[in-house]
Design a protein that fits this description.
This protein has about 120 residues and is mostly beta strands. Helix content is about 0%, strand content about 50%.
Amino acid sequence: QVQLVESGGGLVQAGGSLRLSCVASGRTFGNYAMGWFRQAPGKEREFVAAIGWSVGSTYYVDSVKGRFTISRDNAKNTVYLQMNSLKPEDTAVYYCAAKSGSYYYRNQYEYNLWGQGTQVTVSS
C-alpha cells in the first residue's frame, strides 16, 4: 500500500509563510514527478507547482511564480512547497500527487496517486 501524506497547513495572515510537506510511504519518490494542486470551496481544482525526476525541472502556475518554491528530497521520500507572501486568494485545500513519466505536469489526470489534502487559510 503506497500512500501520500501532506502536512504543514494552517492559518496565517496575509504576507506570511508556510511550508507544506508530502511524505510517501511504501516506496521511494525516485523516478516520479510530484505535483501540488489546490481547491478552494466552489472552485475547480487547479495546478500549483510540479517537480520532475530530472534535476532542475520545476513548473508553476503564473499566480504563484516568485512566491512559491517546490523542492524534493528523494532520500527522505519527501516533497516540499515553500509558500511566501501568502495572499487570501491562496486559501484552499492543497493536495500532493505523484506522476510516473515525463511531460504534461499541469494536467491533474496525468497523476495516479493523491494525498488527502491539507488546509491552508490566509486571512486579510
